[in-house]
Description:
Layout: H1 2-16, E1 33-34, H2 37-42, H3 51-58, E2 62-65, E3 71-77, E4 90-95, E5 101-106
Parallel strand pairs: 1-3
Antiparallel strand pairs: 2-3, 3-4, 4-5
Amino acid sequence: MRFILLVTCLLVExxxxxxxxxxxxxxxxxxxxxxxxxxxxxxxxxxKSTKADVRAALGEGVVVDFDSxxxxxxxxxxxxxxxxxxxxxxxxxLFDPSGTLAKTRIR
Length: 107
């Protein structure tokens, strides 16, 4: 009887330690989307991150290349299903001609 009680207690403790089930907001991102513009901006560093670093961290964005060698990449923040649609939030990145991140802006 003690053995069954011990096994039951261990199972209850093990179940209590499990992480909560995943939430429905973990839907896959669409092209050029990030979950949060703010957290995406914090994942990269102005003056340090290169185009390859940003592509690895955030994926492919909407790319606009200029004749001067500068480039702008734009990422749209993903909308949550249950939230009222807020104004569209975008993360805009400016790369210098050497391919290094020069400036970021959330708009």
